[in-house]
């Protein structure tokens, strides 16, 4: 259960990071 929870949290963190990065990339000028 602990392992599954940790894995799920890592997925959420990675997903959140990807979303933030994509949002920043779309807002900030590229290059």
Automatic annotation (TrEMBL):
InterPro entries: HAD-like_sf, HAD-SF_hydro_IG_5-nucl. Keywords: Hydrolase, Magnesium, Metal-binding. It holds the Pfam family 5_nucleotid. Transmembrane segments: none annotated. It comes from the Eukaryota. One of its GO terms (molecular function) is metal ion binding. The keyword Hydrolase applies. This is 5'-nucleotidase. It comes from Scyliorhinus torazame (Cloudy catshark).
